[in-house]
Design goal:
Blueprint lengths: L10 H16 L4 H4 L5 H10 L18 E4 L16 E4 L1 H7 L21 E4 L2 E4 L4 H10 L6 H23 L3 H13 L8 H7 L1
Antiparallel strand pairs: 1-2, 3-4
Length: 205
């Protein structure tokens, strides 16, 4: 999990959120009214600010895993935040499903948009744990099962670890200064916030 900055609210949301909210509150069973936050402009803005990654597990999102628009504070419990830009983010389907309607306003949970978020978690290879005593971090990690039980996610992270270790070994064995500089720049690039599992990669190196 990496710290993210909220970007500018999409024009379509600025223009329509008041009427959309009124329509949703008037008829919550109406799917058209309920899911207007999935508008392509809104989703694309969320993907851009999250670097096309799930904000929780850092998996890259794409055609096979398009990601879900996620309410940080569930709108089932906080109806007036259904179209609140600051309450919207993007998550993979698995993280979104596990989080469900957990009330992040009433109870502690990790918010990738908050300052100091990266200091609240520790990576042990593909496993993520909270800093001892940080209840919000532990609740988030356990609820999303970032510490266990998600075989596909673990396998992808292990593949990334193997890839990074191979690159580190290549750097250590390289005698050519020019090539070594290129390889080191490549390794540094893998730590940048837009890269998949970059939080874990940073901890490795």
């Amino acid at each position: 999990m990496r710290h993210l900055e909220k970007t500018e609210e999409p024009e379509v949301l600025v223009a329509h959120k008041v009427e959309w909210l009124a329509a949703y509150l008037a008829d919550k069973a109406n799917a058209t009214a309920k899911y207007r936050y999935r508008h392509p402009d809104i989703k694309n803005s969320l993907l851009k600010e999250a670097y096309d990654k799930c904000v929780y597990c850092e998996s890259k999102l794409g055609h096979n895993t398009p990601g879900d628009v996620e309410h940080k504070a569930p709108s089932s419990l906080h109806e007036n935040r259904h179209f609140d830009w600051d309450n919207l983010t993007i998550a993979c389907t698995e993280c979104n499903r596990r989080k469900g309607a957990y009330d992040t306003i009433a109870d502690p949970f990790l918010d990738p948009y908050s300052e100091g978020i990266e200091a609240r978690i520790t990576h042990y290879g593909p496993v993520v744990v909270g800093v001892p005593g940080d209840v919000g971090a532990e609740i988030c990690i356990r609820r999303l099962e970032l510490d266990r039980g998600r075989n596909d996610l673990t396998e992808r992270k292990v593949e990334k670890i193997i890839e990074i270790n191979h690159l580190r070994n290549r750097i250590a064995q390289c005698d050519n200064a020019v090539l070594k500089a290129i390889l080191e720049a490549d390794l540094d690039r893998r730590c940048e916030v837009d890269q998949e599992f970059s939080g874990m990669v940073r901890s490795l190196i």
